[in-house]
Amino acid sequence: MELLLMTLTTGIMVGGIYALVALGWVLIYKCSGVLNLAMGELTLIGAYVSLSFYSMGIPFLLSLLFSLIIGLILGILTERIFLDKLIGEPVLTVIMVTVGLSFFFKGTVEFIWGVDTKVFQPPVFPLEPIKIGPLVIGKVYLWSFVAALILLVVFVSFFKYTRWGLAMQATADDEMAALSLGVSARFVYAAAWAIAFMAAGVGGTLLGNINGLNISVGYLGLLVLPAVVLGGLNSIPGAIVGGIVIGVLENFSGAYLDKYFPGGVKEIAPFVFMAVFLLFKPYGLWGWERIERV
Amino acid sequence: MSSDTMILKINNIEVKYHEVILVIKGVSIEVPEGGIVALLGANGAGKSTILKAVSGLLKHEDGHVTDGSIEFQGERIDRMGPEKIAKLGIVQVIEGRRVFEHLTVEQNLKVGAHMRKYGRSLKEGLEMVYHYFPRLREKRNEVAGFISGGEQQMTVVGRALMTHPKLILLDEPSMGLAPLLIHEIFNIITQLNKEERISILLVEQNAKLALNVAPYAYVLENGRIVMDDTADKLRENPDIKDFYLGMTDFGGRKSFRDVKHYKRRKRWLT
Q1: ipTM of the complex
Q2: Domain that holds residue A21
Q3: CA-to-CA distance for B125 and B141, rounded, in angstroms?
């Protein structure tokens, strides 16, 4: 019983981090119909940038803020340099470019920060966990969860109530019609990439606080794919719920199935679940029913 | 028509797609301030292309105005991007009822107000649209992808209205709609023109309809203007009667040779 509860809470908390990265993924898809396969690398970059600031002795929250600002700039630059020319081209082309970007970013990260695992030193979050009854929760996990929830509220209200949020959704729906109303498609895409960079940066930083940071954190991007697909590619609440479901699933299969299938069952389970789930709900939980663009 | 009252002047433009495909060959059109001008023509004549050339959306499809000029209120706009042109007060209602399917009707309208910061003017704009399209008020919270075709057409026209345009480029508002609805929408269009003083360049295949609302019209064929005149004169023109209004003087069948002859004659004229 205790194991069950523990696994569940850890799953939910880790899921919070997945949800953050999933958010970035959904944002780009929502605005431009592009599946950004470089998402994992965005996570890496954000995480390394905040780690660098932190090791210079800058307080953690400030480092995170700096990393957000750099994420914003990088997002806009990426869009301007690599993707701007592709506005109006088939979505598949753009997706292939994101594959290229993912290799490019990974190479750049290895070049700048090397391949050894780095940790946040001194540890940002106190190591002693919080105890609620029989439950033991690491503070990192708790904070990640809180951060995910806050960002969820911020993004949902951004899309629902602000001028730019609506314009971004409109562009996703019909770029041409949005253009005809004076919406700047370039601005919309730049904003989407900037926000994705930032969300991924937060996710990466938090994850780096759990296990230390190395290039494999970038695989998170791919690991989050089931979460995104599960929630529906263009639903923000879907990304959050999907992230949490995948987190829980991963931890459960790690705790209960590892005995029977030793090895990577933890990593594979979410993908198996995604495949089965899609058989029944091809658009995910809250995805748009007509996805013509992929 | 004297030239200083023209809100839009298209001077002898040539349009090429992908830098090789010549689709518009020397077209000149003028729209008077506060007027309605219709542009008639068959499928593929280049009507939509002309509208896109004006709104700047052409560039988005890799098309360019390679010769001639387009002037809006005396300012050259043929090299501007679509956002800039929209800011000047030109809005194109793209053919085919392109609503933002996943947004509600009201959100669709709000996107129309994107260029002017949200505020009190947003409410006023919405009220104006609901005044002209009461039906949209009822549907305001419904997802635009699921409302009827007529309501979608109203939504896109209303959305265009939210930009507070000086000139609306209206591309086939009658496409695929029931006659009664078409009637309703065209009534509103004339009303908008009269009450809000919005100039309209209307593209239509339904010539009868277009000539009812527009006092002046141009006929486009194969990327060239073959005729332009007042609606009254065009309605009496035997060729127009024949090919666009579907009436013949003889009541009998026309032989294809006459059609060809007509086309040849028009080509000589231009």
Answers
A1: 0.85
A2: 13-223
A3: 17
